[in-house]
Inverse folding.
């Protein structure tokens, strides 16, 4: 590719392509075709949003964290506690509060822990999450402790659409709309100069310092934005399901979302979609019937992905396409 | 005597008992063509790291335009016009040549933190990056990823990135290292064609390049400045010939 | 419970943490490999011990030796075939690979043996109480303290006095330098990986009494092992020893005083400590 072709590609890369409407059309098609599976569909949408938030820090900024569920949990508990104790059960403002709380938490903890790297950073993210988990466990008067808060009720969406406990119709469309908004935000960010500079930080920290970029400020900002998005995903979880418990911020959830993102392919926007769909479909069909075999298969898959398919399913697809193109 | 662009006073750096810079007084004027030579382990790269702020000195001062920048962070010094290349390539290996240069140019133009405007709409950034890529004759490789390029071409990207920062002082750490001789003329031409407004400090082992390019030479040995002067003075200096140049000039 | 009993109890569990974690610290320091599967080797060791005693009637120490040898051999096999491919990989790939490995270990143990907890039967002379003069305490806990102390002394001597120990120290401090001096770092790594995993197996067996033993063991205690290593410093035997004792005692005291949220303090203290000294107790400043 010569210079002008490269420059043209660079200048147009952020433009929306026609095929990018497909996932959303598919999302609407699921609503019409599988009315009995919308509860599951809602969980998939929420998980995509959560994985997408992780992609911003892990895939783009290159920050390896084991504690991203801390922010999902912070959002989930914010919405739950506001509804249970403050009578604040309006959904959209609840999500805004979840984003704010998780974002501030991300800003504060990011400002502190992003001074470190490597194993220490892994440990600090893990400890931050464990700390929150224990706090939620201990503060039973506010959080319901081990049992969490069951039976939460929320006001109708936009004052009109009742949450649908049985079929999740409202929840599904609501989650789809929030995911679309979150996706457009992340897409805008990663194609901005800010997003490009995050990629630079991931690729070569030393060089990024040497071109005069305020590296840590950018990392902390990305971490906070990602935390706020994870908080929104957590808030959606509580609103859609009508409950929240300790499982929202454990190591299982943090490792789960990491696996989903890597499986789909990190640092490529749609990896979160593919990963969440594939993982949750397999889990949904296999894990209840054969929980141990599911874990064994998952473990083997992870080992294989780490050894041979570091860019996940989308990475494999790209490699296949390249090979076919080369022929 | 006019104020120096860059000056150090009694610069020292030690790691534990190991002294890697001993009381270095060094001066660089605007537009200088200066070479830093010396055997391996003489402390040349250490001095570069002290000048750019990668390392903080144990004692002594670094002055830029007469202002004390000793404690200034690396990024702030870049904004004041100090750019460098690395002895071993430090590039964004998974990104294309164009993306590499655009990142540097975007930082210099203050666009690096812009969150809402697509990077592709900064036509000024792209145009400037394209100009530098042409300058270093990297046009055909502009769309290729760094890790697909031969090492010699990567060296040129190092320089394009540094130039993208529009420095007043350019520090080149062994720019010719690893470039096959067939391609080294591109590098030589690029360095020779640098605007006179840019002061250049080059660390290099290739004595042909040093003597063709430099108007001043500083020789370092064992963390200290051993000798300094014009190329003719250095070439005539018997001690320098003894410790370092040796055969390179006799030939 | 009086102060001395709490202290002894904490020391005993700290010794278990030490025996399990010390190998992790050295291998991480040597190769910078983030090995989240380390607890899995401890669990496998515990299972070998429990099953060899129950099914084959092996005596306690023979079974413990078998656990060490079997797990060390498995570790060498895994290191040669899988780990070695990921030395130069990113941290993320290493995290992913070792999480996958933990899942495989957990699932395999669950499928082959079952999800229930295993009991390690102690020999008669390790059961009961021992009179120390000023107080009478569980013999097994005292034995653990003695064993841990002997182990740290042996490892310390091995590190300080032997050629291999010197090579390991050099490679932890500066791998490139050590390699240029002719140290075969990958062979060292295989060796320490085997030894470290074998010790983890012994720790898993000896600690079954205190930490329990079931398939979920590697994930349940993952944070603890990592905390001990991060606090002690990478590649620092004595650092890990003191960190393990501190965590063991603190955990014991806090759980005793605040049964509700004892572990919370451990996490909070770890956070605070690592922020002040990211390199750990004895680690070198980067």
């Amino acid at each position: 590719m010569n210079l002008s072709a490269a420059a043209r590609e660079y200048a147009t890369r952020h433009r929306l392509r026609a095929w990018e409407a497909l996932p959303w059309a598919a999302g609407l098609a699921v609503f019409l075709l599988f009315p009995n599976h919308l509860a599951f569909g809602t969980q998939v949408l929420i998980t995509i949003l959560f994985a997408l938030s992780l992609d911003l820090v892990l895939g783009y900024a290159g920050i390896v964290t084991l504690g991203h569920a801390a922010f999902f949990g912070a959002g989930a508990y914010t919405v739950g506690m506001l509804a249970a104790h403050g009578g604040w059960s309006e959904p959209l403002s609840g999500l805004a509060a979840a984003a704010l709380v998780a974002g501030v938490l991300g800003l504060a903890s990011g400002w502190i822990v992003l001074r470190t790297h490597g194993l220490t950073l892994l440990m600090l993210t893990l400890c931050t999450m464990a700390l929150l988990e224990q706090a939620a466990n201990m503060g039973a008067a506010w959080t319901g402790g081990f049992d969490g808060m069951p039976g939460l009720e929320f006001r109708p969406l936009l004052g009109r659409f009742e949450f649908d406990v049985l079929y999740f119709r409202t929840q599904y469309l609501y989650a789809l709309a929030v995911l679309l908004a979150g996706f457009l935000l992340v897409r805008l960010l990663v194609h901005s100069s800010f997003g490009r500079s995050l990629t630079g930080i991931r690729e070569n920290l030393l060089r990024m310092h040497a071109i005069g970029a305020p590296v840590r400020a950018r990392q902390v900002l990305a971490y906070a934005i990602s935390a706020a998005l994870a908080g929104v995903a957590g808030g959606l979880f509580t609103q859609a399901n009508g409950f929240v418990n300790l499982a929202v911020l454990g190591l299982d959830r943090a490792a789960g979302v990491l696996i989903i993102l890597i499986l789909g392919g990190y640092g490529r926007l749609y990896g979160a979609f593919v990963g969440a769909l594939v993982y949750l479909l397999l889990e949904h069909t296999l894990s209840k019937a054969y929980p141990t075999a599911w874990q064994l298969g998952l473990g083997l898959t992870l080992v294989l992905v780490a050894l041979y398919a570091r860019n996940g399913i989308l990475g494999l697809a790209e490699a296949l396409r390249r090979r076919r193109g080369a022929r | 005597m006019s104020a120096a662009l860059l000056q150090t006073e009694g610069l020292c750096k030690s790691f534990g008992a190991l002294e890697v810079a001993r009381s270095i007084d060094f001066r660089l004027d605007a537009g200088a063509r200066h070479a830093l030579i010396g055997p391996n382990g003489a402390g040349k790269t250490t001095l570069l790291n002290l000048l750019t702020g990668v390392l903080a000195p144990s004692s002594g001062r670094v002055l830029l335009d007469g202002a004390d920048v000793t404690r200034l962070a690396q990024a702030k010094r870049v904004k004041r016009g100090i750019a460098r290349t690395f002895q071993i390539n430090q590039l964004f290996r998974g990104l294309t040549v164009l993306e590499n240069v655009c990142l540097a140019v975007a930082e210099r133009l203050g666009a690096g933190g812009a969150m809402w405007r697509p990077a592709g709409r900064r036509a000024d950034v792209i145009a400037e990056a394209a100009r530098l890529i042409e300058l270093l004759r990297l046009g055909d490789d502009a769309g290729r990823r760094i890790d697909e390029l031969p090492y010699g071409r990567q060296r040129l990207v190092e320089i394009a990135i540094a130039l993208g920062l529009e420095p007043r002082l350019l520090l080149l750490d062994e720019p010719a290292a690893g470039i096959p001789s067939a391609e080294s003329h591109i590098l030589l031409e690029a360095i020779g064609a640098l605007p006179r407004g840019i002061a250049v400090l080059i660390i290099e082992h290739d004595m042909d390049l040093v003597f063709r390019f430099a108007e001043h030479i500083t020789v370092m040995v064992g963390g200290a400045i051993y000798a300094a002067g014009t190329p003719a003075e250095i070439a005539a200096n018997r001690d320098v010939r003894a410790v370092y140049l040796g055969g390179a000039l006799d030939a | 419970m009086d102060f001395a009993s709490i202290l002894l109890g904490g020391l005993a569990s700290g010794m278990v943490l030490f025996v399990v974690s010390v190998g992790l610290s050295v291998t991480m320091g040597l190769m910078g490999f983030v090995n989240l599967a380390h607890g899995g080797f401890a669990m496998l060791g515990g299972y070998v011990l429990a099953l060899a005693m129950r099914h084959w009637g092996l005596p306690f120490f023979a079974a413990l030796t078998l656990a060490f040898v079997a797990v060390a051999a498995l570790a060498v096999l895994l290191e040669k075939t899988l780990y070695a491919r990921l030395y130069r990989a990113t941290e993320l790939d290493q995290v992913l690979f070792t999480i996958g490995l933990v899942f495989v270990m957990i699932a395999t143990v669950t499928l082959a043996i079952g999800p229930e907890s295993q009991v390690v039967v102690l020999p008669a002379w390790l059961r009961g109480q021992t009179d120390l003069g000023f107080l009478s305490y569980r013999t097994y806990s005292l034995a653990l303290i003695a064993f841990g102390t002997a182990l740290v002394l042996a490892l310390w001597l091995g590190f300080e006095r032997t050629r291999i120990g010197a090579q390991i120290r050099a490679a932890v401090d500066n791998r490139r330098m050590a390699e240029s001096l002719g140290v075969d770092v990958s062979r060292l790594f295989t060796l320490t990986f085997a030894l470290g995993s074998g010790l983890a197996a012994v720790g898993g067996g000896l600690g079954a009494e205190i930490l329990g033993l079931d398939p979920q063991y590697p994930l349940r205690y993952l944070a603890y092992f990592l905390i001990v290593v991060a606090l002690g410093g990478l590649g620092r035997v004595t650092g890990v020893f003191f960190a393990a004792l501190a965590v063991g005692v603190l955990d014991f005291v806090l759980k005793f005083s605040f049964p509700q949220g004892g572990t919370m303090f451990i996490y909070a203290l770890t956070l605070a400590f690592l922020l002040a000294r990211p390199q750990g107790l004895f680690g070198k400043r980067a």
Summary: Chain C touches chain A through 47 residues (CB under 8 Å). Chain C has a mean pLDDT of 86.
